[in-house]
Structures
1.
Amino acid sequence: MAQKEEISHAIAAHASWKAKFKDFMAGKLELDAHVVRQNNQCQFGKWLEGEGKTSLDKADYEDIHRLHTEFHKIAADVIVKKKKGDVQGAEADLGFTGAFTKASAVLTRKMMDVK
């Protein structure tokens, strides 16, 4: 898949994570922190580790890889917080100024710049 197309898919996928987490917080969807923490299990992560590694400029690859990894870490942390009963902490991370929202925005911004 072409770099621009893959990045467009990744941006859309990050938007869908917000809906998934809304359902997770409402108890409508089960998420596994161990799986979510892995940055190479999503479609974009697989592309990034394969074709993306060779098609992206080295500096862009390193930035995107770091930001993508951080996003997955924060997403997994939200899951852990909720499952441990810290619903308020999880909701704060998902809020407008929360860690999840910021990490997603920074990654999306970087992907848009590269695209």
2.
Amino acid sequence: MTHDRVILGIDPGTIVMGYGIIGIVGNKPKLEAMGVLQLNKLEDHYLRLGKIFERVTGLIDQYHPGELAIEAPFFGKNVQSMLKLGRAQGAAISAALNRNIPIFEYAPLKIKMSITGNGSASKEQVAGMLQRLFHIPDENMLPQMDATDGLAVAVCHYFQMNSPVTEKKYSGWKDYINKNPGRAKNND
């Protein structure tokens, strides 16, 4: 089936990364895939980042998304956990930028709000709404909520597509540098 567009959603993590892929035909979303990348067997944090980059690149090559939607790191009390989460997000973003795919970033509250109408919804509530939206049989629901979290990011982006307010978007490395001049140093 040919899709008008394909959206890859990522819930970044250094232990488990969730992803969801939806295809849009006309104006209707269709679930293409969802899953998780388990990283807990790898002791080295940098190897985990490499696996995230590889898996996201593989998903891009397999499904050919036109956009990547990713959950933004949230502020937490544990600075080390937040740093690791930001690195995981960076590895996924790098894979998309490497394939010139635009990136859209959404806060956890915005994702939950767009799926359930409640910014403080539980992971179970988000998963339940997505299960109903896509008519996913119980036996096809993964035990890790990270998969439905990744799918939620893609669906959130789908819902926001016609919104006049957009999140941060980068169409490639040059665009990122142009929009963040203080973050990148040009060594030409």
3.
Amino acid sequence: MGPADHTEPPLSACELPAPTDASAPPGTSGSKVLRFRDGFQWEGVVPRAYKDPAAHWRGIARHVLVGEGGESAPFHVRYFEIEPRGHSTREVHEHEHVVIPIRGRGVARVGDRDVPIGFGDVVYIAPNDVHQFLNRSEEPFGFLCIVPASRDRPRPIG
């Protein structure tokens, strides 16, 4: 096979080109690929504050990957990144969720137990379990968080 015979293979389902217009007409694909970039960023996703400013959390950015872009999925996927020595709110809520660390190491505090977690671990938070995520290291700690699209508001504890 010579250079003139070389053609690119078709894209796989995992390599769908990102839509060029987020307001695509009905009947067109809403599928998309968010390209991962250096610094734990995703193309087209703007990091936001974790929550409204409060004393019960420190040093967290939130990236909504699926759930606020017109998707109809019954779940949302977010990436949270906690700065060194930062922490999420110690909270409780009725919905369950899953956390999967993909950067650094952190601590899942569930009830009164502190469990060290890192890349590839999976943390399931059951309904009404008090929980918090902490970064006791000097490096960023980042994790994917999957929650139901329809959920109750968390209530801070302590």
4.
Amino acid sequence: MPRSVNSVASRARRKKVLKMAKGYFGRRKNVWTVAKNAVEKGLVYAYSGRKQKKRNYRALWIMRINAAARLHGMSYSVFMGKVAAKGIELNRKVLADLAMNHPEAFTAVVNTLK
């Protein structure tokens, strides 16, 4: 019995990977073995990048809250401690948005803490 090879599926799989490698430099975009490795590595970076994005945003929010709190004579840790103690249920994302885009609202939050 002759050997059966599903070349349709193989071709489709290779085309899919080469399509994902579009825009890569040199042989990474058109040579199957090189492109396959580059795409696999890229997917690993994409996965970890989705996790890092959350960390980076949280760090950005903390920096913004800290800067705004220091304008009112309070450090970030003291500010967040008072927010938790008062039972204000605003998360860091909302507080950072208030600090950046609505300073008068942030000042009102600070005044309730003092």
